[in-house]
Amino acid sequence: MDKPKKKYYKYRPSDFAFIITSVGEKYLSNCVNSILKQKDNPGQIIVSLPKKINFKTNSKNVLVIKSNYHNQVYQRSLAKNFLKNKIKILIQLDCGFELQKNSFKDLIEFWSLQDKKVAGLGMIPVDQRLSKINILQKVLLTNSSIPGKVLKSGYVSAWSNSTKTCEVEWLNGGCVSWRLDLCQDIFKRKYPMIPWSVAEDLIYSFNKKKKYKLIISNKLKIKYIINDKNHVINIYKNFQKGFLHSKIIKNFVSNDNRLSLIYYYYTTIFSSVIGILASILQINLNKLCLYLGRLIGGIVKTYKYKIR
Fold first, then answer.
1. What does the alpha-carbon distance between residue 178 and residue 171 come to, in Å, rounded to a whole number?
2. For residue 290, what are the contacts with CB-CB under 8 A and spacing of at least 6?
3. b/e 227-256 (16+ beta carbons within 10 angstroms → b)
């Protein structure tokens, strides 16, 4: 009896490198250990952290590097100096994600089935569910029923764990993999040195979409492990979140002729005003500050340079 033929993958585990960024220690160990538990060992695991974060591991497969700045884009850029020449696929993980059983094996196999025009593959969290898109979101251009769509306003739609394999216009930077030969510029970004790297993934991936394909698939299993149910009132944090989002998206829209500033202002102003009124009625101070920040961030001047 003939032996079954062994599957041939054009990528090997050693072709892959993980880059993990973190702004805190709470979930970092879970994320790193989920990689170490995989049946196959990747070529590299690099953890890039702000200096103030203490993280130790006994694994010789994990390299910990320290950053002077608390900024995901900058932290990832430091990894360039430590990457081995043999690395072909770069996997970006935020510490809030952890791999599931055989996740890495599935990713290797999935990459090996892609054509030469695919630059990025996005993983979908197994627990990610989205609320049904309502008519107001469609009218205000803040969301779409099409997964991974970048609207003319610069706002985007996401995807859920039921989303099948499909081509999209942007990828989530916290659980994505890139072909390095097509994405050498990933280490040469120009992004503000702010603690929350909002929309950095959108800006980078949408630019890649001009020439290459971006794919997401619920076959690539990953889990989001951060509990977002925080009801503590934080006026400054929520205001800053809305403010920075608007300011960054305004820069994004201003520098891409596929998008429209008119639609951006329409979406930002009207969605913010409606959000402010709804927050007052609901007596929700966190959301009120978020929408106030979004409104003001949309009106003030954005950064003078093109964010990329």
1. 10
2. 238, 239, 241, 242, 275, 279
3. eeeeeeeeeeebbbbbbbbbbbbbbbbbbb
Asked if residue 267 is part of any domain, the answer here is yes
Q: Are residues 102 and 190 in the same domain?
A: yes
Radius of gyration of the chain from its Cα atoms, rounded to whole angstroms: 20
In a domain, residue 308? The reply is: no
pTM over 0.85: yes
CATH number at residue 48: 3.90.550.10
Say what the pLDDT of residue 161 is: 81
User: By percentage, how much of the chain surpasses pLDDT 90?
Assistant: 77
> Alpha-carbon distance 223 to 33, whole Å?
13
Give the residue carrying structure tokens 């609901």: 282
**Structural domain span for residue 97:** 13-126+161-224
pLDDT tens, 185-197? Answer: 999 999 999 988 9
In a domain, 145, yes or no: no
Under 8 Å CB-to-CB from 255, ≥6 apart: which residues? 306, 307
